[in-house]
Specification:
homodimer; alpha/beta; Rossmann fold; 8 helices; 51% helix
Chain lengths: 206, 206
């Protein structure tokens, strides 16, 4: 079975950078936006629309289990979101079948739970997330600190709702992960190297 | 300023083993039961009594801040526990003054908060904690699984109450730590080596 790392992350905590660095150091595939492109290709929906659906809150507030539920929605919005989620699950499973990989977000830890992925959660203080957003994304310049803070909180709330809706678990709950890393005072480069050492203690890596 | 690692840990999760290994790899001092011996020496109380006080629940359920409170207790039990806590705080501060060190438990993360310690929390699934207790402590053999499970839960509850009472913070809350490590499927030896790499990325260690 291929080796898999999944990364859940608070917005602005550097989870994506950590994922990329890990994939590079390990020589594994890295999947993030590629998944959206694939969904768009398969469903004939625009990438921007798929992204919007995946980032919006599921309407209902109770968890459902795809394939085991008798729940049939009359709300086409939920249907659309659910179809996209199912397609996403298929794509993530296929990607994990193909090679060792690092997957950021997208409930991958839950979708691939039978394959025993190494599950990371990345978090940081609000101030360091504001600072990281400013340093990584020029578009943040037009936002005041308060606006940026509200944006961060909103995206986190969406991620938590999305995760709860599709998995039934609380997003970012420590016990659901193998390791939780606070990047507030950390060098993500050093964290990535240390994690490689943890995952491949005896092997030489690049 | 000396470098400090503090380790909070669920009972049976291997936090003490991790602390010992880290101290050994880094060549730093390691403090755990030594603190109790020192308190006993300074207060003229028996070590077993100090240990019992430190492991029992503080009676009141609200946080107090030593040195900043006008609260004067008429309950000598609380007074005794508070005196021991103050003595413990002094000893921990002195130890941190002396050399680089690893300190397990005892609210050291809070007591030394101004010295910017690297704060670790160690946790694991209940089953792996039961297994670890059985493998590390022969006395566990006389306990049924249910009894051992109740013991683990009780000690965790005591740690949480103790921590809340003296620090005002929730014990084991992710955001209060730099890294949280699930030892359920991990080799503590490998985790220790990886953490050393994270803390001393450029240095050669033993």
């Amino acid at each position: 079975m291929n080796k898999i790392i999944t990364i859940g992350r608070q917005f602005g905590s550097g989870g994506r950078e950590l994922g990329k660095r890990l994939a590079e150091l390990l020589g594994w595939a890295y999947y993030d936006n590629e998944i959206i492109t694939q969904i768009a290709n398969r469903t004939d929906l625009a990438e921007s629309y798929v992204k919007q659906i995946l980032e919006s809150n599921p309407v209902a507030s109770f968890p459902i289990t795809i394939g085991q539920t008798l729940y049939t929605s009359v709300n086409s919005g939920i249907d659309q979101a659910t179809n996209i989620y199912v397609e996403q699950s298929n794509i993530i499973t296929e990607m994990a079948d193909k090679s060792d990989c690092v997957i950021v977000g997208r409930c991958a830890d839950y979708i691939l739970r039978d394959r025993n992925p190494f599950k990371i959660f990345v978090y940081a203080s609000m101030q360091s997330r504001v600072d990281r957003c400013r340093s990584k994304d020029e578009k943040s310049d037009v936002l005041t600190d308060r606006m940026l803070l509200n944006k961060i909180r909103k995206i986190d709330r969406q991620r938590a709702k999305y995760y709860m809706f599709y998995t039934g678990y609380k997003w970012g709950e420590m016990r659901n992960y193998d390791i939780c890393i606070n990047t507030t005072n950390a060098s993500i480069k050093d964290v990535a190297k240390a994690l490689v050492k943890m995952l491949q203690p005896e092997e030489q890596t690049k």
